[in-house]
Design brief:
Strand content: 35-45%
Largest sheet: 5 strands, antiparallel
Order of helices and strands: HHEEEEEH
Strand order of the largest sheet: 3-2-1-4-5
Helix content: 10-25%
Oligomer: single chain
Structural class: alpha+beta
Radius of gyration: 17 Å
Shape: globular
């Protein structure tokens, strides 16, 4: 399983350094469990699975701004070894849910910074893919003020 995670991380770092063709984004769109844009709010260093390993494990948490694929959430936590993420920056994240050491976690398969003055090739391509799919929509994240009330509401 460790080799699978290493392979995913290796592939994601390769893809994050180059602009990808639309067909590659389409393939990543189909293979991803969750695609979203969000602002990085926290980073946590996780212990390694093997004490002798030099691998870096980070748990990064985003406040979501849009959800292009997947279920609605307010926040998302992604496990990665990518240390290039900067606090309070907005990113487009493609992630896959995998089972590792009896836990199901989302791991980053591709990321790209999103900003007003950037080219934003990835997010524009994702919007094109969503526009061509009949039932695909861009969802807004859950808002804590508009959550379904719990209980009977008779208090």
């Amino acid at each position: 399983m460790r080799y699978l995670i290493f392979t995913i991380i290796l592939i994601s770092s390769y893809y994050s350094n180059a602009q990808l063709a639309d067909s590659t984004f389409l393939r990543m769109f189909k293979n991803s469990d969750m695609i979203f844009t969000g602002v990085l709010k926290s980073k946590y260093q996780l212990p390694t699975y093997n004490e002798c390993s030099d691998e870096i494990r980070l748990l990064i948490e985003f406040d979501l701004t849009e959800i292009q694929k997947g279920t609605r959430h307010m926040k998302m936590q992604i496990e990665t070894s990518d240390t290039t993420f900067k606090m309070n920056k907005e990113y487009l994240i493609f992630s896959k849910k995998i089972k590792t050491h009896d836990n199901k976690v989302f791991v980053k398969t591709y990321s790209e910074e999103v900003c007003l003055n950037c080219v934003n090739h990835g997010i524009k391509t994702v919007y094109k893919i969503i526009d061509k799919r009949p039932f695909a929509t861009i969802k807004q994240p859950l808002d804590p003020n508009n959550l379904m009330p719990q209980g009977c509401g008779c208090h």
